[in-house]
Each structure stands twice: as structure tokens, then as C-alpha cells.
Amino acid sequence: MIDNQLIAKLKAKHIKITPKREAILQLFLNRECCFSPDQVWGHLRKQFKHCGLPSVYRNLELFAQHGVLTKIQKTDRRLYYALCKDHDDHPHYHMICVDCGRVEDVPTNIVPEVDKVKGFKILKHFYQAEGVCQQCAN
Predict the structure, then answer these.
(1) Among 73, 76, 91, 104, who pairs with 95 as Cys (CB 3.0-4.6 Å)?
(2) Where along the chain do its domains lie?
(3) 20-70 residue pLDDT tens
(4) Phi/psi of residue 8, each to 5°?
(5) Using CA atoms, how far apart are residues 42 and 18, in angstroms rounded to an integer?
(6) Distance, CA of 94 to CA of 18 (rounded, Å)
(7) Is the CATH code 1.10.10.10 the one for domain 4-137?
């Protein structure tokens, strides 16, 4: 079942929840890790007879534009997507486990401090850190 808060966010932005979009969201909700577009496509092809990779890219990008998913570039330089659990759009960063792929949101916002120190108006930023999560470390 898809998270009601997530559905409300999408409906407020007039995004239709199609069966394929629901399957994409459910994949991210079921596993707290990041997926490449190819991995999402591989999962969807098991459920849907007609599912093209361009459609997967469009839906992932749509969800990213509306703050449902976040883009992650790992050290392999490939693009991945992860569920953005902070549905209230608070400033936060992402911690990524290099072993299991788990992605955790970390609430923080250092941008105002950087603005003050350097007098530089930041228009866009992202922060992600890679490491080993507590579960994998044990």
C-alpha cells in the first residue's frame, strides 16, 4: 500500500497515479535503497507487458521534479534515484550505504551559513555522503 502522505503530495501537484507510477513508488517504499532507471525498468517489466525504458525515465524525472524522489550520483558515476522521505520539503541531505544501498535523510541546512560567510547567493545545492550504515557495520 502506498503511503497516504505521499499520495496526498502527488495529488496536490495534480499528478495522476497510474498503475506503473504506483508500481514505481511501491518499489521505492518496499526497499529503502536507491535504484538506477535500468533497475526500475527491470522490476516493472515483470509486472507490465508494455513498459519502455523512456517511460521509466520520464516517471522517475517527474517524481524527482516534485520532491518525491531524489537523484543520487554514486561513485560509479551512474544516476540513481531514492525515495525522499522528508515529504515536507525541509532542507536535508542524504547518507548512502555503499554495502546495501540504503538511503537515509539527514535534516540539516548549512546553506544560510555559507551564504553569510562567503556572500554568495546559492541557487541550488545538494549534499550526499557515502559510508556504511549501522546495520551493515554490525
Answers:
(1) 104
(2) 4-137
(3) 999 999 999 998 788 999 999 999 999 998 999 999 999 999 999 888 888
(4) -60, -40
(5) 18
(6) 28
(7) yes
